[in-house]
Specification:
The protein is mainly β. It contains no helices and 17 strands.
């Protein structure tokens, strides 16, 4: 095979021998949105990699992914026999991510937490009622609390001590719309 680099000022030409592995024709992995969590619904044993706008998302190698920003998401699934394929792109732009009129500058500390105790802080842009939920990766809620807060700085301590180590998704929700979603991690 001859490859030509048409961007080289000298229009260089170089020949090299290399191998190309062609993946067998595996169907595209199906992806569904399960309450804000993108889930690849393949059954069996696969290695996954999630992508945002065609760029790999570092460390996102589970069968599920919770988007934290609008964009086009894809997953690559590769079976143990080497067969693999990319899903179709899933356009994710929920109301609330693009135009959040409730809360600004959210921080969660410490993250990761060694004891399961987190402090969430932010600035409320107006008086409001909202929920904070925390779910495990498959989507099971492990924490849910409704807040009635006034405009200004907001801070709350969330105690998840006794919760197993792992990655969880914290969501700030108003009127069933996710305003913010943040990964939190417990490590002992």
């Amino acid at each position: 095979m001859t490859a030509r680099d048409n961007y080289c000022p000298a229009n260089a030409k170089r020949s090299e021998v290399f191998s190309i592995t062609v993946m067998p024709n595996m169907p595209k992995p199906p992806v569904i949105n399960n309450s804000g969590v993108l889930t690849c619904t393949l059954s069996g044993s696969y290695i996954y990699q999630w992508f945002l706008n065609r760029l790999a998302i570092p460390g996102e190698t589970a069968s599920t992914y919770t988007p934290v920003q609008p964009g086009v998401y894809q997953v690559l699934a590769v079976a143990t026999n080497g067969e693999g394929n990319y899903s179709d792109g899933y356009s994710y732009n929920p109301v609330g991510f693009a135009s959040n009129e409730l809360i600004n500058q959210v921080s969660i500390m410490p993250n990761p937490s060694k004891d399961g105790i987190f402090t969430i802080a932010g600035e409320l842009l107006k008086d409001s009622n909202f929920e904070i939920t925390i779910s495990d990766i498959p989507g099971k809620k492990i924490f849910n609390k409704t807040y009635h807060e006034s405009k200004g700085n907001f801070s709350s301590t969330i105690n998840l001590s006794g919760t197993p180590n792992g990655i969880y998704i914290l969501k700030i929700v108003k009127d069933n719309q996710v305003l913010k979603a943040v990964k939190v991690e417990i490590v002992n």
